[in-house]
Amino acid sequence: MEHSSEFIELFKKGDHKAFEHIYDTTKKLTYNVIYKMTMDIEESNDIMHDVYVKIYENKHKYQQIVDLKYWIYRIAVNHTLNVLKKRSIFNKQRSSIGFFYTKQINNQKNDYEEGPIMALLLKIKPKYKLPIILKDIENLSYEEISKVLKINIGTVRSRLNRGRKQLLESYQKEVANE
User: Fold this and answer.
1) Which residues does residue 114 pair with via DSSP β-bridges, in sequence order?
2) C-alpha–C-alpha distance, residues 76 and 52, integer Å
3) Residue 2 CA to chain centroid, in angstroms?
4) Tens digit of pLDDT for each residue in 56-81?
5) What are phi and psi of 29, to 5 degrees?
6) Domains along the chain?
7) pTM, whole model, 2 decimals?
8) Which of left, alpha, beta for 172 (phi over 0: left; psi -120 to 50: alpha)?
């Protein structure tokens, strides 16, 4: 998702074709992150619209950003967190929405395989949930996650470890209750 400096300058000057290109090349990744945080199609579409409005309105701030992809990720994550905080849905179980993150935990490897356990991810605190989404679902590197969340790599690793432990504990409780 590299964008040349000339292309970015056109975007900053308000070139609509440049903005369309940014939208076309980033919309899928942006939507995936938003949806995996909200697990609600309508809400994700609303948030995505707001995110791209913010991107367009804040294009003049781009000179402070090293990488367009991470700037967009950051706007998407921050805006989604703000919406979720306002609506207080991080701690609610939303089993009627469907299964997007259906992973089964392997105790030895801490790997995830397809399975019907989406609700487990909802039980994890957002500060642990986001690194799991970005690492295990979006396949970002530790460095990329560090840029997106604006935390150091050690903190990324720590939050991933704690989040995976919480996920494993929730899974074990679910299995014990069956």
Assistant:
1) 103
2) 9
3) 20
4) 888 877 666 567 788 888 899 989 98
5) -65, -40
6) 5-87 (1.10.1740.10), 98-177 (1.10.10.10)
7) 0.61
8) alpha
